[in-house]
Amino acid sequence: MKIKTKLRLGFGFLFIIVLSFGLIALFFLNELSDKSKVILKDNYKSLRYVAAMRNVVDESAFPLPAEKAKIFEQNLKNEGQNITETGEKLAFQKLAVAYETLTNASTNSINVNSLKSLRSALSKYRRGKYESHLRQK
Question: The pTM is what?
Answer without folding.
Answer: 0.59
